[in-house]
Design a protein that fits this description.
Elements: E1 4-6, H1 20-29, E2 32-37, H2 45-54, E3 59-61, H3 75-86, E4 94-98, H4 108-125, E5 129-132, H5 137-147, E6 154-157, H6 163-171, E7 174-178, H7 189-193, E8 201-203, H8 225-236, H9 240-254
Parallel strand pairs: 1-2, 2-3, 4-5, 5-6, 6-7, 7-8
Length: 257
Amino acid sequence: MLRLIDTHAHLYSRKFDADRPEMVQRAIAAGVERMYLPNIDSESIEGMLALEAAFPDNCFAMMGLHPGSVQPDKYELELVLVEKWLGERLWAGIGETGIDLYWDKSNLDIQKISFARQIEWAKDLGRPIIIHSRESNEECLELVKAGQDGRLRGIFHCFSGTLEQAQRMIDLGFMLGIGGTLTYAKSELPNVLREVPLESIVLETDAPYLPPVPHRGKRNESAFIRHVAEMLSEAKVLPLEKIAQTTTANALRMFAV
């Protein structure tokens, strides 16, 4: 059986309330031995920690503030809570954080403040940072470059960019998180990833979002990550076993304590 790692999945989402334990067991049965859980904001922490407690060998929580939850009236309080939690225990990573310019461009300034602060925490704690960069690759690259002092590492989650942007991310010490969008008919990712070293790629689902073909239109889950691995195998003309072995090793290296 292939050994796979889902580096980004919101398995605490309410969309899994009806069958969460069974969903996790399906992933484990499919060879997905680890699932990393990025936090959203204060409302997602309880469910995330409960899932981690239920599956301590398979589910690993991260702590951060999602850019979609950065709002003028409450983001400072949210960051205070994140900082408090970061002092309580060791987390798999910091995030997800970053910048999202798809939904709202008006709060870019405070998104940058939130992201920059979490970059500093990632460096101080020696943990990888998980970057959400929807329609904001350049803005995120600018802040990562400014903050990179040799201590910063992480993943550009749900990578969708040019080969030139991918190379800049890799040069800054980052890996690319590749998920279901790789399997979409109009995706340019296969062409880009042909030129990207496999050692710089990790797999993810972003479950319950972005389900891969042949599950489009359905709820995504970690067991479906095999479809991403299969498409990456096709794009890079490499055996599926090589894809699984290398991306799993990449993820373990990235999240190593």
